[in-house]
Amino acid sequence: LSVNASEVATLLTSAVINSEGGAATTNIAQGLAKQWIYFNGTSTIAIADSINTGSITDNATGDYTVTLSNNMANVNYSIQASSSDYTCVINRGGAGTPATVSAYELFVFYASATDGSRGAVDQAQICGTIHGDLA
Asked: Is residue 29 within a helix (H) or strand (E), and if so which, with residue range?
């Protein structure tokens, strides 16, 4: 079987797979994570590993900006985040800087179940992932 570069490019950008039961199809390019990051958010912050991440900025305690290497097509993308011990929240338009095609703000905070208090906290293991359309 011989495949030329054009056919490979088409396959990689428009390949469709069937679901396990065969009832649904998924476009592979649409289902891939377009950016992810794993970083240390304590002391001197540092990216441990990532894809499509240009940099991170430590704005304040528990407040980080993740900048992308390649922009998203628009701001209608999905962001998921987690940390090893505390809750992560992505800023989609509230206080701080709303998500843009090139960056998003990530907050890590603790919440006390007993007295309802909460506050920002630096965390050693923080992850973020984007799904959506690249520009």
From this structure: helix 28-31
